[in-house]
Amino acid sequence: MLLQFNGEPHSYTFFNLTQNMEGDKGQVEMKLSSDMDEEVGGNGSHNSNPKPYVAQKLGRTQKNLCLMAAATLLFFIIGYLIGFLVHRQKEVAPTCAPSVSAFQEPPVHETGAAPLMDWDDVKKLFADKISPSKFESVLSEFTSADHRAGSPGDKALAIKVITKFKTYGMDTWSDELFVKVQDPPASGYNKFVFKGTEQRPTGFLSYSATGKVNGTVLYAYYGQESDFILLRDKNINLTGRVLLVRAGKISFAEKVANAAQMNAAAVLIYPDPTDYPIGDTTELFGHVHMGSGDPYTPGFPSFNHTQYPPVKSSGLPKILAQTITAAMGTSILRQLGGQNVPQTWGGINRLGDESDLITLEVNNVLVEKEIHNVFGVIKGFVDADRYVVIGAQRDAWGPGFASSTVGTSVLVELARSISDMVKNDGFKPRRSIVFASWSAGEYGSVGATEWLEGYLTSLNMKAFSYINLDGVVGGRNGFKVAASPLMHSLIEGALKKVSTLNKAVSLFTQFGRNSRESNPLKLVSSWDKSFLTHRGFPSQEYPFFGTMLDTPDRLKSLTSGDVTRLAEIASQFAGHIALRLVHNHLLGMNLTRYNDMIRTHVYWINKRLKDVRRMQPQLLPKDLTMQWFFSASGAYDRAAHQLAEDVMNSNLDDIEMCRIINDRIMAVERNFLSPYVSPRESPFRHILLGSGPHTLKALSSHLDALKAGNPGADADLFRNQFALATWTVQSCANSLAGDIWSLALMET
């Protein structure tokens, strides 16, 4: 058996090599001359008293002696060759067969049973590759004053990134996309008029509805659901109102979606000086699509020449939305009348009344842009078709130094470091690492989502984790990580191994468990459909994201000049996670982490169901029970613990078994995406971490509405949602259990 490397780090060819000999048992038979037999008797009989042959042929003695000498020499040479070949065969047999190239010893390649490099050596090698000094030139090279998505500056950066990847010896490719985005009016402007004063903000919110509305202003704090509950408790009618809300706490899109649910007519968003010390006249930029990707091709990729019916994402708002400056917002707030704000909001402001009239006009325009995603890959040596994706957005509204430049620089440095480990230091990752540079991230992860939609079937089966580097450095006094619960053990391990600015102290020691967030979708919504998600960055809340003030000087000032050192820490942390995922035989994900979340939801749904039965017994039929939900929850718990036991008892030298176990682990997150809702209608399909009526959280909310007698509550709709959510949990448990015969064994 020969293991031969075919010029690519992930390609192996196996074939049988059969030797045309039998080792030490090989024999050679020779006859020197056929005329010898003739001279001992033509009839085949032997003379009973033969004379010596030499005596009979005295005249040919010298010739015979020469023949005998030649025969002896020939036998000696043949014997020597046989002995040499047999000895050579014994030496070569245990190792790889020689390369077909003459005079070249073949490189030794891993058979797949185990990595050739110890994990401690991998960590040390990687740590030596990353240093603050290397970031100086990279940050300088990728700094750009104008690289909005689809612009010449954006394309120039894409060329720089892919050129770097090629220099590192990586296989590279790019995707060209044609996406629809909304920009501010090319001619004209957005404006509002409040109490006779006209204002023309230059910031904007992409994907806002357009047009003109008249209404009265209502101050709604941060525009969270809890804020609207307080307003409802004050018997304030929100229908047709223009809401003034602060930036922060939740995304622009969530604020607008919440306002639309309350039948508001429009939303004005401003950065309150107590939250954002960015100056009174700084404009804000963002988007309000409650989803990700191109909202005009929901669920489909925006590749060239593709034609789709005229559909829109359900996440596009139907009301107007506009950002205004702090000076504009505080000026409106001071002039409002009406009731005092709730005590919990603080301050002495008023909510607004029917006399606080305002007119808002939004004239954004829809444009099509050509954008480019670029990629490089380091191919694995065992499971090359399984990969982790590391990505960073490349575009920005303005300079975007913290939002995109630092992340792109970290992406490139990670690619350089790990490529160098493979080429020069003997590191052989078991799985592949894909490095991705996205465009149109500021419009809602458009480039990343369109790539995902274009290759969803393949990525669903083969990509097991996504590490996001957007906004990777935003301060120096904190460290936040948002991740799938499956990743928590890996993250905790990385926090303990990576040092802070104080080299003697680890991230875990300084920031502890407070650095973790369990919900990745609040930060990285585009990966809900397929990937586990991880994001880690040193940060206090960086105030200049989404502004024209996101410059190198401001980030350096906010970090006391430690941008390069913080970029090193972020690289070490992200790299540690990625290398762990591609180095180990088994993906180190803790499947039991979801057990607690499911049990918590089961408890609250059961409690609320009992409350509804007690207070509104006529709404739910008696045959609606929690039995099947309990059963599904228990099935997942058993399957998760059984797989954990399989991992503990697995033979790491069994490549196929490791692959089967890893595939079962990879399926968990994917199977928590509800198959019963459309990506067009519900882009965040995860029943535990997503949003929408299909989630377990929505079931609890629906029961609350039934209990309160809310006219919008529907008992039949709840039963349908309850059944689908139950079966989604059960299906995830079934997939986790493995083969179909394992399901029957678990049930017994």
UniProtKB/TrEMBL annotation:
Stearoylated. It is a single-pass type II membrane protein. Gene3D superfamilies: 3.50.30.30, Transferrin receptor-like, dimerisation domain, Zn peptidases. It holds the Pfam family PA. Keywords: Cell membrane, Endocytosis, Glycoprotein, Lipoprotein, Membrane, Palmitate, Receptor, Transmembrane, Transmembrane helix. GO terms for cellular component: external side of plasma membrane; melanosome. Its main location: membrane. InterPro entries: PA_dom_sf (IPR046450), PA_domain (IPR003137), Peptidase_M28 (IPR007484), Peptidase_M28B (IPR039373), TFR-like_dimer_dom (IPR007365), TFR-like_dimer_dom_sf (IPR036757). It is found in: Cell membrane; Melanosome. The chain crosses the membrane at residues 65-86. Residues 373-504 form the Peptidase M28 domain. It comes from the Eukaryota. Residues 631-736 form the Transferrin receptor-like dimerisation domain. Residues 216-279 form the PA domain. One of its GO terms (biological process) is receptor internalization. Belongs to the peptidase M28 family. M28B subfamily. Homodimer; disulfide-linked. Cellular uptake of iron occurs via receptor-mediated endocytosis of ligand-occupied transferrin receptor into specialized endosomes. Endosomal acidification leads to iron release. The apotransferrin-receptor complex is then recycled to the cell surface with a return to neutral pH and the concomitant loss of affinity of apotransferrin for its receptor. Transferrin receptor is necessary for development of erythrocytes and the nervous system. Acts as a lipid sensor that regulates mitochondrial fusion by regulating activation of the JNK pathway. This is Transferrin receptor protein 1. It comes from Sparus aurata. The lineage of its organism: Eukaryota, Metazoa, Chordata, Craniata, Vertebrata.
